[in-house]
Amino acid sequence: MSKRDDYITFINEFKTVSPTISEQQRKALLRRAVQQYGITVDDAVEIFNISGILIGEDVDYFEVLGLSISDIENQSEEEIERRVEAAHGKLYSASLKAGGRPRADGRTEEQWRTLLNQARDVLADPQKRYTQLATLQIEEETLEPPPVPLFVENMVHIPAGEFDMGSNDVDAFEDEQPVHTVYVDDYFIDQYPVTNEEFKVFVDANPRWRKPQGIAKFIPNKVHDGYYLHHWDKNVYPDEKGDHPVVHINWYAAMAYAKWIGKRLPTEAEWEKAARGGLTGNKYPWGDVIDIQNANYGNNITSTSPVGVYPANDYEIYDMPGNVWEWCLDEWDDNYYLSSPTSNPISGGSIDGISVNFSNSKALHVLRGGSWYNTAVNVRVAKRSSALPNYANSNIGFRCVMPVIT
What we know:
By secondary structure, the protein is of the alpha+beta class. It contains 13 helices and eleven strands. It has helices spanning 3-17, 23-37, 41-51, 61-64, 69-72, 77-98, 109-123, 126-141, 149-152, 196-205, 251-260, 268-276, 351-356, and strands at residues 20-21, 54-55, 155-158, 161-165, 180-184, 187-190, 325-331, 365-368, 384-387, 396-397, 401-403. It has a four-stranded mixed β-sheet. The longest helix has 22 residues, at 77-98. The radius of gyration is 25 Å and the shape is elongated. The chain starts with a helix and ends with a strand.
């Protein structure tokens, strides 16, 4: 099936739940056609017009029945159906008793009962309910992020300039060679990996990225491998882990978080430059020797540690070696250093090209930094690794960067 056919299927499913939508939703649907399905605006408009979706007042069936997503979140299908039927029955009965009394919303009681039946039919059906959630979140996806200064807090400015990327030391792997000089524009980078507490704010604001359980199956199957947020209980992180790096995070989720907060994932070059802290040729941000006072590695404490516990590098950035592997924007190429550009390199395309249609990526993506579980040789600043974008593990997290806006 082509991307165009995929979009037609999506629009037709959308219409079954929401035949009438707002103008803002229409614009968001057209934008989705371009960004996620890779079709032209003209094609998207034609498909939209043929679909017969009307522009007007959009309907929130949760609101119609007096329910919220939280009322049925994480409930079994049997319990969801029971609650939907109970809410429908109560309102339908009240409407019958009202007789011919005019309603404040301008509908007749007969029209209201038809709407109640539609709401019941949609919310009691798992697939239709899934699409209704997508309908409600279309407008949410178009919200502008808060102003840039809000995000500079707890970020470090990395100056523009050259550095030597890669390693020729005795522990170096072939994919770390040859050492090559790279220029990188200046940027901001998070001082710490993203924590459980910070990621919780994201999933609360974006139900489609909640853990796949009960109604929270809203996260599309194609973007997780079954272990996404595996360590969380429903959508709550473990007690006393709020300041630990969030783990069991795949590349898709890291990309979504970064986009939502107005940032992005670092390129591999940006990550390594920041990790080196201004030093040249060393194995670690502080020199060539590591011990358990420097970083969380080697399974010494058998889990993640709170961010910022170990010493920062000379850029005042924490946890670059150890604690968690960190996702980068780049697609994996084990021979990339042989042909890497000398200025702002990124493997797999451009920053915008990778970012715009990220949920359709199938390529391996770069991981850097090593983790609490890895040996000393695997937490060196030059060490490279990779994983599929839907892969989530107990030692994988991420941090974000943001370009300097002049």
